Amino acid sequence: MSSTQQVSISLDSNLAERSTLASSLAKDLNLTLSPLDSNTIQLVVTQHTVEIRVPSLGNPIYIDFVEGKNAHRRQFGGGRGQPLAKAIGLKKGANPTVIDVTAGFGRDAFVLANLGCEIILLERNPLIATLLDDALIRAADNTDIGDVITRMSVTNIDAIEYLNNLEERHYPDVIYMDPMYPSREKSALVKKDMRLLHELAGPDTDSEQLLTSARKTALKRVVVKRPKSAPFVGEQKPATSIESKNTRYDIYISP
């Protein structure tokens, strides 16, 4: 499913302002506002979050930059010494501007923003983009990470379209890609949030084209995150790679 056509929106809160938000999202996303239904995929506005509920995935899925895995990674992820930071080119006093063209749940973008980067998150699925927007709004007033959130912005758009129409004066130093990788056959081994991404976004069919556009746009480098044993995107060999336990960052240096 690559659109919102099979999804409805529902309200799980009696607060008037949440009802207003649900109605606004229904209009913006062209969704039907329906009663709660545990048998269908729904975007649900609760008292505190906007979340997606999928019958096959169990608990609701929402994004939280304040607590949970994102907070743990912010505090204990290794700072500028971690492989992601090295791949992006974070050095003492250097905070490159970044466009994350495959934002997903925004985890890597949040790490980079926490380390000082101004980063634009591009997410073409409107439901995932809505979760990102909601997470940023909730985190903006947090005293620990409010300044981090100011360095992050989300746009719901196809990344290839965005890059091909971007004015040269807005070209970023770095473009970051984390293309969808085919699900493993044993779906129980795949985390439920990644299963949601696969279900909503469908198969990855344009990562090679996206890499080509990115390499024409990034001022300094393009960084592509891959499983350690995965082939290069589009058989385009990078200048170098940085590896961690299960992940490889392929680095394409701009001319």
Provide the structure class: alpha/beta
Kindly, what is the distance between the CA atoms of the first and last residues, rounded to a whole number of angstroms?
Answer: 38 Å
Q: Please give the CATH architecture of the largest domain.
A: 3-Layer(aba) Sandwich
Strands of the widest sheet, in order across it, are: 7-6-5-8-9-11-10
Portion in beta strands:
15-25%
CATH third-level topology of the largest domain: Rossmann fold
> Based on CA inertia axes, which overall geometry fits?
globular
Helix amount? 25-40%
Q: Can you tell me the residue ranges where pLDDT is under 50 for at least 5 consecutive residues? A: 1-5, 185-189
Q: Give the full name of the CATH homologous superfamily of the largest domain.
A: Vaccinia Virus protein VP39
Supply the CATH class of the largest domain: Alpha Beta
Count of runs of 4 or more consecutive helical residues: 9
- SSE run: EHEEEHHEHEHHEHEHHEEE
Number of E-type strands = 11
Tally of discrete structural domains: 2
Radius of gyration: 18 Å
Major sheet size, sense and barrel closure = 7 strands, mixed
What is the mean pLDDT?
Answer: 88
Task: Walk me through this protein's architecture.
- This protein has 9 helices and 11 strands.
- By secondary structure, the chain is of the alpha/beta class.
- The longest helix is centred in the N-terminal third of the chain and has 14 residues.
- The chain has a 7-stranded mixed sheet, sandwiched between helices. The chain has a 4-stranded mixed sheet with strand order 2-1-3-4.
- The protein has 2 domains: 50 residues; 185 residues, Vaccinia Virus protein VP39 (Rossmann fold, 3-Layer(aba) Sandwich), CATH 3.40.50.
